[in-house]
Structure formats: C-alpha cells, structure tokens
Design brief:
single chain, alpha/beta, 7-stranded mixed β-sheet, 5 helices, binds adenosine-5'-diphosphate, binds magnesium ion
Length: 164
C-alpha cells in the first residue's frame, strides 16, 4: 500500500490578500521569536518575503526601515532583540557557509530570503515559510519545520489569529 502524502496540519497554510496582511503575519509571529531562531523564507521574486520581514521588524519593535538586502546581503534591525535580514538571491548555495550566518545569528533572529540555499546545519532547526504567488494580490504562505526551535515557531505560526 502506498502512503498518500500527509495533508499539511491545520493552520500551516495561510492566505494573504494584501501586502499589509503579509506584514501582519510577520508582526504576529514576532512575539514568539528568541535569539538563535532561524526563519527560512522561500519562494519566487515578488512573493512577499521582504514584506513579511517588514512585519517581523515592526513586531520586534525595530525602528529602522526594512529594505531588501539583495545587494547588501545582510541588514540588521534592532528592537527587543536583533533581527538579521539576509537575502541569498545573488549568492551561490555553495558560498553560503562562508558568509558565517550561523555565527552572526547566534545572538539574533535570522530571517533569510531564498532560504532554500541555507546549509543543512542552519536549515534543520528553522521555521520554513514557503511563499507562493496565487494571483496579483493573493499569496499563500505555507509553514513547516522539522526540529528544535523550528517546531516551537511552527506552533506559534499555527496559533496566529486563534481566539482573535
Ligand atoms: N498579498 C500580498 N502579500 C505580499 N506582497 C504582495 C501581496 N499582494 C501584492 N504584493 C506585492 O508583491 C510584491 C512583494 O514584494 P517583496 O515582498 O519584495 O517580495 P520578495 O521579497 O518575495 O521578492 C510587492 O510589490 C507587493 O506590493
Ligand atoms: Mg525580497
């Protein structure tokens, strides 16, 4: 008997109908974040990864404006904790380990666009958020995690909006 793929658990998949709604998901996740956490943001250009980080930064109380780090590679925002915002779009997967994201992220939250390129060591305990373009204004954001803090953040993601 072949096993059917398991359906995603309830609340893993969220729909956003506007840029601000995508940011609001980030802001809603922010209270659950702790230093050392890794969020791998996956999905194509224009899917809303940077918008989501705008909300994360707001949610941790950072005053800096969020800009895409596709040229700078890493931006830092400081609020109740430090948020490192990386974008690996222009980086070959093989070059990512040399960036030292693991060391930089020890005392910060690491939010990484093009998180598909993260080395396994960092990806293993990450919350993965896959962004999909459904239509002009509609985005699907699908969360998953395998281990460690990723699972705690996954639970927090699923709880967003509950009882609100
Ligand atoms: N529901 C939505 N969520 C996020 N962005 C959206 C949404 N609908 C339209 N957009 C547009 O899609 C683009 C997303 O850009 P951005 O966050 O920079 O994507 P990425 O970082 O994934 O390349 C923006 O131009 C934004 O206005
Ligand atoms: Mg981006």
């Amino acid at each position: 008997m072949s096993a059917a793929p398991l359906p995603a658990p309830a609340g893993a998949r969220r729909i956003s109908l506007a840029p601000e709604e995508t940011a609001a998901f980030g802001a809603a996740l922010a209270p659950a974040l702790a230093p050392g956490d890794v969020i791998a943001l996956e999905g194509p250009l224009g899917a809303g990864k940077t918008r989501f980080v705008t909300g994360l930064a707001r949610g941790v109380g950072a005053a800096e404006r969020v800009r895409s780090p596709s040229f700078t590679l890493i931006n830092e925002y400081r609020g109740r904790l430090a948020l490192l915002h990386a974008d690996l779009y222009r980086v070959e997967a093989g070059e990512v380990p040399a960036l030292g994201l693991g060391e930089l992220g020890e005392d910060a939250v690491l939010a990484v666009e093009w998180g598909e390129k993260l080395p396994e060591r960092l990806a293993a305990g990450a919350l993965r958020l896959r962004f999909e373009i459904v239509s002009d204004r509609e985005r699907a954001i699908i969360a998953s995690a395998d281990a460690g803090r990723g699972l705690a953040l996954f639970a927090a993601w699923r709880a967003i909006g509950e009882g609100a």
